[in-house]
Each structure stands twice: as C-alpha cells, then as structure tokens.
Amino acid sequence: MSREILKKAKRIVVKVGxxxxxxxxxxxxxGKIERLARELTDLANQGKEIILVSSGAGAVGRDRxxxxxxxxxxxxxxxxxxxxxxxxxxxxxxxxxxxxxxVAQILLTKADAIDRHRYTNCRNTFQALLDQxxxxxxxxxxxxxxxxxxxxxxxxxxAIVAGIVxxxxxxxxxxxxxxxxxxxxxxxxxxxxxEVEEITPEIEAMAGDVGSSGGTGGMxxxxxxxxxxxSTGINLVIASGDEPHVVSRILEGEDLGTFFISKENRLQFRxxxxxxxxxxxxTITVDVGLAKAVKRKGSCSILPVGMTKVDGVFDSGATVSVxxxxxxxxxRGLVNYPSDDLQKLIGAKTSAIEKILGHDKHSDEVIHxxxxxxx
Length: 375
Hints:
- By secondary structure, the chain is α/β, with parallel strands linked by helices.
- It has helices at 18-21, 30-45, 57-65, 74-98, 110-114, 116-131, 146-151, 154-165, 201-205, 219-230, 246-251, 269-276, 288-295, 339-345, 353-357; strands at 11-16, 49-54, 103-108, 135-140, 169-174, 195-196, 235-240, 258-260, 280-286, 307-311, 319-323, 329-334, 372-374.
- Helix content is 38%, strand content 18%.
- It has 2 domains: 2-270, 3-Layer(aba) Sandwich (Carbamate kinase); 279-374, Archaeosine Trna-guanine Transglycosylase, Chain: A, domain 4 (Roll).
- The relative contact order is 0.12.
- The strands form 2 sheets. An 8-stranded mixed sheet has the order 3-4-2-1-5-7-8-6, sandwiched between helices. Strands 10-9-11-12-13 form a 5-stranded mixed sheet, with helices on both faces.
C-alpha cells in the first residue's frame, strides 16, 4: 500500500545515468532517449511537472572528440564535457520537440546550492519554467566546477534538485534495478530490496560500488541521494533504465526497483537548504547521552558538555555535521563558535565558557536547536 502515494505524485525528478542514454562505446543511444522523451512528454501532458537530471555529457563529448579512453586531466575532462553538453542538449531539444515539448537547460554547481540567495534564485527559476510547462534538463556544470567533475555524481545532484523544487518523488534510473542485499554482480544469491522504510547503518552497508564504466556513480552515491531525499520528505526510487515505460509504471504504483519511503515531516525550506545545500565544513562528535537526546522527537541543542571531538577548520556560522561515537551522522547545523574555540570547549559546562575562552560568550549552545536538522 505504501507505493499508492506515488500515484498522487505531481512534481517528479527523473535522473538518467550515462549508461541509460549511451552505449558502452560512448555512442548516443537515440532509441532510449526517444523513448524517454516520449514517456516524459506524455506524463507532462497528463499534468505532471517533470524535471530531468541527465548525465552523459562527458561520454558524448569523448565520442565526438574521437577519444579512445577517458581523459586523465581535469582540463581534458572539462573539454569533453563542454563538447558533449552542447551535443546532448541539442539531441534532447530536437527529440522532445518532435512531441511538442519545450525543454530548457540548467547547469548547476555546488556554489548554487551552498549560497542561500543563489539557492533561492534556482528555486524561482525552476518554478517559472514549470509554470510555463517547460521540462528543465539539469546537469552539473562540469566545465567550470572542479568539485562536481571530481565527484561526477548526478545522483546527489538529483536529490539537491528535488529539494530545491520540493518534488514529490525522485526517480534514479541507471544500469542497476535497485538496492540488493549484496553486490548482484558478485553474488548470484543477492536479493532485491523492494522497499526501505528506514535507512539504517545496515541498509547503508549494502550499498557497494555497483556501476558501469561510462559513468562514475555507483550504489553508494544513490544511497547518499536516498538519505538526502527521504530526510527532506521526498520519496525516492532506484530502478533500471532498461525497463520499458519505467517512470510511468513507478508512478502507477508498480513494484519496480527499490522504494525509499520519505519521513512524514517535511523540513522547512530554510532547513532543507541547511541540511543538504550547504557545504559541510567540519564534524562534531558527541557522547552517547547527547546522541540519544538528538534522536528524540523534537531534537535538542548541542551543548559543549556533550562534545567529545571536533574535526575541521571553520568559522562561526559554518555548517557542520554532528555524528555519534561510531561516526554515524545524526544531524547538521550552524555552529555559534569557530573550530579553535570549540576545541577548547570540548566537555565543558555552559557556565565555564567565558572563563575558558577569556571573552564574552556568543551563546550557551554550540548549535541551537533552531539551527539543527536531525537526519
């Protein structure tokens, strides 16, 4: 019954991996792109709002340049992406146009998600396009963004985009048909997990490096995307791009792939940005007692007495990750003190902050509960 909610989804992010739209030799798979364009246009004609996140620019560019192997340098990779992005977008525009569907290109970088104002502007741009019944086609701006090019991770990009547009569901299509109990390429007895109600450490451990040679995202990045999506109230499905009419069938509630069920409470827009848009500049490890308190409904502030370790170099106002003694991420939030001060405050009582630092305290809390997002 849980998949019944997908039938009501109106705003849908669909991510296609490199292997979904290209052949192993990097040649464009026009048949798959045509079927994808026809299906997404049909969904748009039904009144659905569709955002497509597409990989493949690097592979298409390498093919157009006649390269036999992947470039090994950053400029080489950027050159291939620059050539491929134009070719790929032209292909999308032409094929979608055959069905009367207008598309638009949006290239994003981490900076667009980190900066609050740029994040908000991205949201407004997406909304304006959707209001005009345009399908935005999104990719990372690999040509100028070093971080994105190193990661090559459109799985997480799709989760960020889903958060920006407040999507109902994020559908990841690739050459794997879901999360398995083990790597199916190595273990023939591995079983597909059809539904995940809670992403536990055991579930996360099942995400191995399952991916193709064309792209660089494996199951690990898809799991990261699932954590980001469900923590912000967005359902996520991992499914095979080879399945016919896969998006429509998922939205009809068919039991395809792995369905990650979102948490009921949607984060406020600001907190969604804080949790999954801002750059994480450090880590605060907390003791067992504070870890339990953070997990309780309603959350709590992070006080210096509960800290056991501080990693990273950052200023006050930075976004940091809060983890337990085993390193499992519990929350993210904005710190009230720089890392140098926090190193001195580890395990300290609130009443001792001014004496330890030698100046007036900024706050009793290391992270106030209003600036903390529990994952």
